[in-house]
Amino acid sequence: MKINNIGNQNINPYQRNMNKLDSAAKSGKAPSDKIEISSTAKEMQETSKLMKERQAKVEALKDQVQNGNYTIDPKAIAQGLKNFYQS
Fold first, then answer.
1. CA 36 to chain centre
2. Which of 16, 20, 38 is nearest to 29 (CA)?
3. Under 8 Å between Cβ of 61 and 70
4. 3-state helix, strand, coil in the chain (%, to 5)
5. What is the b/e burial string over 52-82, where b = at least 16 CB atoms within 10 angstroms of the residue's CB?
6. CB proximity list for 9: less than 8 A, separation 6 or greater
């Protein structure tokens, strides 16, 4: 048994979208895409003051190590480890 013409007849779901595009083109305003970046995202993209300070400290340590002027204080390291594991 064959059943014909059930449901909506002659309705093209894409036709509605085409009609919207045609009406937008006739009105002279073409649809356009828009992107906005939040101020928080802009701040995240910028190099922070803290990062600059860290980079300067790393560069100073590199220079000290290369020149042979860098000394390690074992007491300060031991105290730092002790404080870390006690808290």
1. 13
2. 20
3. yes
4. 60, 0, 40
5. eeeeeeeeeeeeeeeeeeeeeeeeeeeeeee
6. none
* Tokens standing for residue 38: 């939040």
Tell me what pLDDT residue 18 has. 76
Phi, psi of 67 (to 5 degrees): -85, -10
Is residue 30 within 8 Å of residue 24, measured between CB atoms?
yes
What's the pLDDT at 82? Answer: 95
Give Cβ neighbours of residue 70 (< 8 Å, ≥ 6 apart).
61, 64
pTM: 0.38
Higher pLDDT, 52 or 65: 65
Task: Write the pLDDT tens digit of every residue in 14-64.
Answer: 777 777 777 766 766 656 788 888 888 887 777 677 888 899 999 999 999
